């Protein structure tokens, strides 16, 4: 059975809003438990990393181009480039490499 | 008469804050539009139409969270899985909202808390917390008024124009999102040894899981590995008291 996309969106919307608003309205004290605080501190980095790889090499037509985008993105971000320049550079290298690979 | 004058002055102050917020929101909105376009391509691949793309972004306001939600839709997974994936992928906003709650004037009315909380994203949180405390909700509203439409329409345009673009351009644009994730993950990894260790470990674990357990959907893989690896990191390397709150002025994504 296919699920309803609007219902999916509704579920996501409710959870998203609850996550953002509950701390602002209900819990005004800091979390005391050190494990929980540490866990929440690491969560974003682990989640984003897990979602980035191997998806980045599967999103492009050629995995080599995706791999190059990964390398360039890490390098530029390491050198301090912002969100937008890193994203655009990743696109550019994929475009250039796939052009080159198609021509070769 | 006197009361009216006071009201007018307050109104004017709110208008000035709103305008400042809107100005601060412009560069954020431009970046959002571009990344949302790439998200729109992913949304189209997951079977969403332009209206659905618009609303998933309007209500989601999160690139990683929405991308995770799209993997759930693409896999036709259960609504419970959608709720869990959304919870995990957006867990960092919980942290930010905690930090933001400390910036609010304790007397701030509930409606401001409800509205400001609607759009806690990495960048908008960043500029909100860069303002002197207590937090001025009107500054936030100004930035939201620019950033939210850019994000939502960018996604809708991505769904539509993703069709019109040649395959090679779509292939290139589809990595914009991952580039943005990298731009969020790498700078803290440079400063924090534990993160520097766990980012490549997460890559490797995710790759291994995708090959060894192909039956696992992308969303479930994300949940399980996040719980496992973050739990491991927290158990082995608990953070000192002052580091567990999101830092100011960090480079972040939506």
Instruction: Give the SSE string of chain A.
Output: HHHHH
Q: Segments of chain B where pLDDT lies below 50 for 5+ residues? A: 243-254
Q: How much helix is in the residues of chain B?
A: over 70%
Topology order of chain B in helix (H) and strand (E) letters: HHHHHHHHHHHH
Strand segment tally of chain B: 0
- How does the helix and strand content of chain B classify structurally? mainly alpha
Number of strands of chain A: 0
Give the largest interface: A-B, 76 and 107 residues
Instruction: Give the overall pLDDT of chain B as a whole number.
Output: 85
Count of DSSP H/I helices of chain B: 12
Shape call of chain B? globular
Strand percentage of chain B lies at under 5%
Quaternary state of the chains: heterodimer
Strand content of chain A: under 5%
Global Rg of chain B: 20 Å
- Please give the radius of gyration of chain A in angstroms: 19 Å
Number of domains of chain B: 1
What average pLDDT do the residues of chain A reach?
87
Write the layout of secondary structure elements.
The complex is a heterodimer of chains A (104) and B (254).
Chain A: H1 5-25, H2 34-52, H3 55-59, H4 63-78, H5 83-103
Chain B: H1 2-45, H2 50-60, H3 63-74, H4 79-89, H5 91-103, H6 110-118, H7 122-130, H8 137-161, H9 167-173, H10 176-191, H11 193-212, H12 218-236
Helix pairs in contact in B: 1-3, 1-8, 2-8, 3-4, 4-12, 5-7, 10-11, 11-12
């Amino acid at each position: 059975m296919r699920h309803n996309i609007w219902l999916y969106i509704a579920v996501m919307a409710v959870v998203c809003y609850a996550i953002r608003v509950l701390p602002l309205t209900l819990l005004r004290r800091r979390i005391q438990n050190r494990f929980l605080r540490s866990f929440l501190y690491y969560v974003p980095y682990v989640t984003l990393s897990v979602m980035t790889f191997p998806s980045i090499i599967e999103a492009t037509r050629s995995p080599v181009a995706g791999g190059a985008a990964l390398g360039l993105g890490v390098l530029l971000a390491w050198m301090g480039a912002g969100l937008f320049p890193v994203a655009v550079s990743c696109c550019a290298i994929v475009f250039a490499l796939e052009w080159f690979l198609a021509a070769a | 008469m006197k009361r009216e004058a006071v009201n007018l002055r307050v109104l004017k102050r709110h208008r000035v804050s709103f305008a400042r917020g809107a100005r601060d929101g412009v560069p954020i909105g431009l970046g959002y539009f571009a990344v949302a376009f790439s998200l729109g391509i992913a949304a189209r691949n997951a079977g969403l139409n332009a209206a659905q793309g618009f609303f998933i972004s309007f209500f989601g306001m999160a690139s990683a969270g929405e991308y995770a939600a799209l993997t759930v839709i693409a896999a036709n997974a259960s609504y419970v899985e959608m709720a869990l994936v959304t919870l995990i992928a957006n867990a960092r906003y919980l942290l930010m909202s905690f930090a933001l709650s400390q910036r609010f004037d304790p007397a701030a009315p509930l409606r401001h808390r409800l509205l400001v909380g609607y759009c806690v994203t990495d960048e908008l949180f960043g500029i909100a917390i860069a303002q002197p405390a207590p937090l001025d909700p009107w500054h936030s509203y100004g930035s939201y008024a620019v950033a939210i439409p850019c994000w939502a329409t960018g996604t809708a345009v991505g769904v539509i124009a993703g069709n019109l673009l040649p395959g090679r351009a779509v292939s290139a644009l589809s990595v914009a999102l991952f580039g943005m994730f990298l731009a969020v993950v790498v700078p803290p990894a440079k400063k924090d040894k534990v993160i520097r260790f766990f980012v490549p470990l997460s890559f490797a674990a995710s790759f291994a899981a995708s090959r060894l357990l192909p039956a696992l959907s992308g969303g479930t893989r994300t949940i399980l590995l996040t719980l496992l690896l973050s739990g491991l990191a927290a158990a082995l390397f608990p953070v000192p008291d002052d580091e567990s709150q999101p830092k100011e002025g960090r480079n972040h994504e939506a």
